[in-house]
Design goal:
The chain has helices at residues 2-12, 57-67, 74-89, and strands at residues 23-27, 33-38, 44-47, 99-105, 108-114. By secondary structure, the chain is an alpha+beta fold. The longest helix is centred in the C-terminal third of the chain and has 16 residues, at 74-89.
Length: 119
């Protein structure tokens, strides 16, 4: 899968790593959601509900655990993601400047920008 390809690329560079924590999201052949995150050396962490990565990941875990609900529609999911991101990055000095949210549905991908603090 694509997640394993990215993981392998990261592991190849483990001694001079890329400083990224990629999130891979999509739908499988049955239109079931798949989401995973990797650390800088490519260790895959998959989940059925949500994954977080980046400098604000500790704050994001708390926000996502409190706001996430099963079977949210696209608009409710966008609102949940937006609130979790904005509240988590407000507590992290290295995060900010907004985000781009992609909602993946069987009909297509919905992309929206979120404006965050810029200090």
């Amino acid at each position: 899968t694509f997640a394993h390809l990215v993981s392998h690329m990261l592991y190849e560079r483990r001694f001079g790593s890329y400083f990224v924590e990629p999130v891979v999201a999509g739908l499988d052949k049955n239109n079931e959601p798949y989401i995973c995150v990797m650390d800088v050396i490519g260790c895959i962490d998959s989940a059925k509900d949500f994954v977080v990565g980046g400098t604000a990941s500790d704050n994001l875990f708390g926000m996502c655990e409190s706001l996430w609900e099963a079977d949210l529609g696209p608009n409710d999911l966008f609102e949940t993601i937006s609130q979790a991101l904005l509240n988590a990055v407000d507590r992290d000095a290295l995060s900010g400047w907004g985000a781009v949210v992609h909602i993946i549905t069987p009909e297509g991908v919905i992309t929206r920008d979120i404006k965050g603090r810029m200090d």
